[in-house]
Amino acid sequence: FLLKTHRQPESVLYVSSQNASTIFPAFANRLEYSKQEKKIVITLHNLQKNDGDIYACAGVVKNSSFLSVNRGGTMVLIKEVEQTDCSNSSWAIYGLTIVVALLFSALICCTLYHVNVKKYFQKKTPNVVYEDMSCSFRRDTLIR
């Protein structure tokens, strides 16, 4: 037998020496086991809050109806975890990222359209003033 022993004592699994087994209703479709000689491996799936307890193995004493319970047992603690729907939130993040990228691209395009970019890349000619000093307009002036 596999028994829950403390919170809600109940039977979970019974396997006879002839390999006949009974899985009790509370664990139907949630328990798998495999038997190899004197070793049984038990796996519980889709744990629920009320599955938390101490599980112990017990054997039926020959020619008697008494159970011999293993003192050790295994404690199973169930911690509730709030599940979030990651698929919807990830699509929202992707969508928001795409919208931000498009708005940033539009801002860059509008800025480049309004600014005359060509004038920044043209080779500039220097502003030069030429003065012709060859002729003199001041005649008849005294030089001291």
Structural class: alpha+beta
Overall mean confidence score, pLDDT: 77
H/E element string?
EEEEEEEEHH
What can be said about the biggest beta sheet?
6 strands, antiparallel
Query: Which of globular, elongated, flat, extended, rod-shaped describes the shape?
Result: rod-shaped
How far is the N terminus from the C terminus? 132 Å
Q: Counting H and I runs of at least 4 residues, what is the number of helices?
A: 2
Beta content comes to 25-35%
Number of strands: 8
Oligomer: single chain
User: What is the helix content?
Assistant: 10-25%
Unreliable residue stretches: none
Radius of gyration: 45 Å
| Overall structural domain count | 2
Describe the structure.
It is built from two helices and eight strands. It starts with a strand and ends in a 23-residue tail after the last helix. It is rod-shaped, with a radius of gyration of 45 Å. The mean pLDDT is about 75. Strands 1, 2, 3, 6, 7 and 8 form a six-stranded antiparallel sheet that branches. A two-stranded antiparallel ribbon has the order 4-5. About 25% of the residues lie in helices and about 25% in strands. With about 140 residues, the protein is an alpha+beta fold. The chain has helices spanning about 85-115, 120; strands at about 1-5, 10-15, 20-25, 30-35, 40-45, 55-60, 65-70, 75. It has two domains: about 1-75, no CATH class; about 90-125.
Brief write-up:
One of its GO terms (biological process) is adaptive immune response. The chain is an alpha+beta fold. Helix content is 23%, strand content 26%.
